Amino acid sequence: MIAAFVERVGPPESLRVGELPDPELKPHQVLIRAHYAAVNPIDCYLRGGMVAMPLPFPFIPGCDVAGQVTAVGSEVQRFRPGDRVWSTNQGLMGRQGTLAEYTAADEKMVFPVPEGVTLRDSAACGLVGATAWLGLVAKGNLAAGETVFVRGGSGGVGSMVIQMAKAQGANVVASAGTPQKVDRCRALGADLAVNYRESGWTDAVKRQIPRGVDLFWDATRQPDFDLAVQLMAENARMILMAGREARPEFPVGPFYVKQLAVYGFVVFKATLDQISSAAESINSGLASGRLKSQIALELPLRDAAEAHRIQEDFTVRGQGELQGKIVICMT
Fold first, then answer.
1. Cα–Cα distance between 181 and 113 in angstroms, integer?
2. 267 DSSP 8-state letter
3. CB-based contacts of 171: which residues, under 8 Å, 6+ apart?
4. pLDDT for 98-149, tens place per residue?
5. CB half-sphere exposure, 279, CA atoms < 13 A
6. 120-131: string of b/e by CB count within 10 Å (b at 16+)?
7. Residue 92, Ramachandran bin (φ over 0: left; ψ between -120 and 50: alpha; else beta)
8. Confidence band (pLDDT; 50, 70, 90) for 322?
9. What is the pTM (predicted TM-score) of this model?
10. Neighbours of 75 (CB within 10 A)
11. In which order are the strands placed within the sheet that holds 192-195?
């Protein structure tokens, strides 16, 4: 099969496209002929050696894939050849990834693509959608009528958080750094969207939500705990998604006086039941139209290194513009 892979960790240009053996299908696995894959920041961290994790070299990065089943293992019960499916959480914890013509995935990590939903959209929503669901539901225990603040609402995860929080019946406030990004947050469903580069924006939020927000989601690499504590209500929760090297100051006094809680999590440590529940929510949202993929760029597999360069420059170095997901067309 044709795949994008590295033979050792390195920069984006170390990712090359060539022939690799087809995956060997195990009894509990489904073989997926990929139509689309997606690029996530974690793919770049693993390929570049920024996150330590066992990698089977030559290593194929990629968490998300959508395509058609071509074969199933002897123990598989839920799928048959020809089924349209998607999967996420591949390319992690020693598993090969999805930037390849074929992906072999555990049946429990494979999900049907609903009728009327495109493979492209399913691939783009996998990891970011699961992340949003896990933070809002599994960790944040979000209830209808509560207010969610999303710092970084126009990004890949932030855009999913806005949409899923609205689907849960929450009120949503989001911040972004340009007028165009603010407009995008509103289009995604935010009840209030503010430009954090404008002076007085925190006062505007406080006037609208005087009691504070119930759930503060920080989707940036450098969390601002002073800001979070300032905007959070008594007994509120904070969901944290920080860069691994982040060492921000923490306002201990105001935090404990307000009786706040902070939760951190990573998707690859989620249970299979949690991933399955997240997938049901993603499928339901896509099928109903409540959830829409946010795709910024589509590239062919031969340009996988360029896709990684764009993603890494934006996520790690803050360079360029990337408002949504990069998807890789495999066909």
1. 29
2. G
3. 145, 146, 147, 148, 191
4. 999 999 999 999 999 999 999 999 999 999 999 999 999 999 999 999 999 9
5. 23
6. bbbbbbbbbbbb
7. beta
8. confident
9. 0.95
10. 10
11. 192-195, 171-176, 147-151, 213-218, 232-240, 261-264
Task: Judge whether 174 and 149 are in contact, CB under 8 Å.
Answer: yes
Cα dihedral sign, 34-105-325-44:
negative
Q: How confident is the model at residue 242 (pLDDT cuts 50, 70, 90)?
A: low
Token reading at 260 = 């706040």
- The closest of 98, 28, 107, 92 to 67, measured between CA atoms, is 98
d(CA 164, CA 154): 14
Contact at 8 Å (CB) between 191 and 210? Answer: no
* Angle (nearest 5°) at CA 23 between 18 and 24: 150
The phi, psi pair for 281, rounded to 5°, reads -65, -40
Structural domains of the chain, ranges and CATH numbers in brackets: 2-113+294-329 (3.90.180.10), 128-267 (3.40.50.720)
Three-state secondary structure of 167-230: HCCCEEEEEECCHHHHHHHHHHCCCEEEECCCCCHHHHHHHHCCCCEEEEEECCCCCCHHHHHH
Nearest to 206 by CA among 249, 173, 240, 177: 173
- Whether 87 and 110 have beta carbons less than 8 Å apart is answered as yes
Contact status, residue 61 vs residue 15, Cβ threshold 8 Å: yes
CA dist 323 and 154 (Å) reads: 7
